[in-house]
Design a protein that fits this description.
302 residues, alpha+beta, nine-stranded mixed beta sheet, 9 helices, 19 strands
Length: 302
């Protein structure tokens, strides 16, 4: 068995349109100069990060580092969970060298510098992991699940504007505004008597506050409170959304008359068909069934 106190860095060199490949050597040198012991593996295909994390765990690693964007940390989390041994919490650190790093935004806007300082100082805190059961299996996440407009934006960005960075989010928002769909996504929160079938613009189920890099979609979310932060925005019109678009960035959208938020332990879905969803920056098509929380099963280095 190897690993011990060493980090296994899972590097996505293609993250950030290849930016990660150029920046990672210097960042790793800074970590090693600060006394952080780190071994490196690289992904060369989408989804491979999960298998690399799984293999690393089997070899004795209990500390992992996501080097890339939100998608890299998502893959690592899904390589490590569900756990079979029920042991002590695992550790996940970040080197944010990709396009979007929404989870880390919860703690800082200083990106790589903050991440390196946290690693060298050994700072960490507990973090919940949210579990989604769907018709084809189970997945886990630490940031958010989005359905509706927010997922439409992420889907469009992933399929057409993935190399555009922040500009890609903006372009996707305005194209989605032109298409503009408001639909029901039946959900039941914490065993409510009825499923909520009202049409809505979007639903989000968050563990942390940000998405899309800088959108504060769930301003009341806390990463270690054992709860899912559920935000619903009802059937606002296109013009109303345009007028209120800036509020998605400062979190004041939840004050809109058509917005609602709740903290929940469990969410049940009653979807007739699979829908496009965005999970921690990844775009998937799933028939969601339930959400629940695995409290404080991960330590995050922040």
């Amino acid at each position: 068995m190897i690993g011990g106190g060493r980090f296994l860095a899972v590097v996505n060199p293609a993250a950030g349109g290849g930016r990660c490949r150029k920046l990672v050597p210097a960042a790793l040198d800074r970590l090693r100069a600060g006394g952080v012991k780190v071994d490196v593996v690289e992904t060369d295909a989408p989804g491979q990060g999960a298998q690399l994390a799984r293999d690393g765990y089997a070899r004795g690693y209990r500390k992992f580092m996501a080097v890339g964007g939100d998608g890299t940390s998502y893959e690592i989390v899904n390589g490590l969970f569900p756990r079979r041994d029920g042991g002590e919490p695992l550790t996940l650190a970040f080197l944010p060298l990709g396009t979007g790093n929404s989870f880390l935004r919860e703690f800082t806007d200083r990106g790589v510098d903050h991440a390196i300082e946290a690693l060298v100082a050994g700072r960490s805190q507990p973090c919940d992991v949210i579990r989604l059961r769907h018709a084809d299996g189970v997945l886990h996440y630490i940031n958010l699940l989005a359905i509706g407009f927010a997922a439409d934006v992420a889907t469009l960005r992933a399929r057409r504007f993935s190399a555009w960075g922040e500009l890609g989010y903006q372009a996707s928002i305005f194209i989605s505004l032109a298409r503009f769909r408001r639909r029901p996504f039946p959900v039941r929160v914490d065993g409510d008597a009825e499923f909520d079938r009202r049409p809505c613009l979007f639903l989000t189920f968050s563990n942390s506050k940000f998405t899309g890099g800088t959108m504060m979609i769930a301003p009341n979310a806390e990463v270690n409170d054992g709860l899912i932060e559920y935000v619903r925005w009802g059937p606002i019109g296109r013009l109303g959304l345009i007028r209120n678009l800036s509020t998605l960035y400062d979190g004041t959208h939840i004050e809109h008359p058509l917005a609602e938020r709740r903290s929940a332990m469990r969410i049940d879905f009653r979807l007739n068909d699979p829908v496009d969803v965005m999970v921690d920056g990844e775009v998937l098509t799933l028939q969601c069934q339930t959400l629940d929380v695995l409290p404080s099963v991960l330590n995050v280095v922040v």
